[in-house]
Amino acid sequence: MNLLIVNGYDKKGWCKLAKYKIQPICEFYRDQLKKIDPKIKATFIYPSMDLKKVYDDSFFHSFNGIVWTGSSLNMYDNTKEIKNQITLMKRISNLPIKIFGSCWGMQLYTVCNGGEVKKNKKGREIGISFNISLNKKGRDHWMYKKKPKIFDAFASHLDHVTKLPKKSVALADNHYSIQSLSSKNFWGTQYHPEFNFKYTGQILNARKKLLLDENLFSKNQIEGLISSYKIPHKDSYSNSVTDFNIRTMELSNWLKYIKKN
Fold it and tell me: Are strands 186-189 and 178-182 parallel, antiparallel or unpaired?
């Protein structure tokens, strides 16, 4: 299977993480997908880093599916880097190509298709998003085949979908926000089914000062959380985050869906 992975970060946002030696998001996403299907081939593009790059429709049609990563960008900032991704997503959304968007990817699709994304008044959700619950449409959706009806997932976001994109349905939510949605050619999650303890812990460490400034954690709490993510005890977390197959079920179901459709 040949996939296109679109990097959602701009240079400034990624540099803040890169100095902590975090694996580039596209490479990490590819590696998680290859654990599901070792035969996957991936190509990366960087629309908020390479602003002058132009692609023909034939380029996108050469892929079986497109994955859009997370990002540290906020839709309402409306920078040239964000505008470039909006232009690209609007274009791809009109092509008959299957797209999976994690976090920023879902927010971007939402705004490009008549929905709304705003800063969440409840604050940032980071680390683990607890008690995500499937609604009836979610329980019947291909994305969630064999997934628990209530589960936890890794997350890192400040913004949330406040109005669904046109011709889409919400599939899951928790006390914090809408956590997933789908349309004809798009599946999206506000959480990160591709993340694991190590990667999430690295992000927590890189954003430690920010989290302390936001009073989201005390110093002892954030240090303890980062430490626990290095060697997580299975009894401390649900199997929806400790078991790779359950954690990545949305992605494996998406890959199966592409092959059958």
Answer: antiparallel
Class of domain 2-260: alpha beta
Give dist(CA 192, CA 235) in Å, integer.
22
Given a contact cutoff of 8 angstroms between Cβ atoms, the answer to whether 107 and 159 are in contact is yes
Question: What are the residue ranges of helices labelled H in the chain?
Answer: 11-18, 25-36, 57-61, 80-93, 104-112, 136-139, 197-206, 208-213, 219-230, 239-242, 244-247, 249-260
pTM exceeds 0.90, yes or no: yes
Query: pLDDT tens across 17-73, in order?
Result: 999 999 999 999 999 999 999 999 999 999 999 999 999 999 999 999 999 999 999
Crossing angle for the helix pair 80-93 and 104-112, to the nearest 10 degrees: 70
Say if CB 86 and CB 117 are below 8 A apart. no
- What does DSSP assign to residue 183? -
Total length of the chain: 261
Q: Where are the domains of the chain?
A: 2-260
CB 108 within 8 A of CB 68: yes
58 CA to centre of own chain: 26
Q: CA-CA distance, 37 to 123, in Å (whole number)?
A: 36
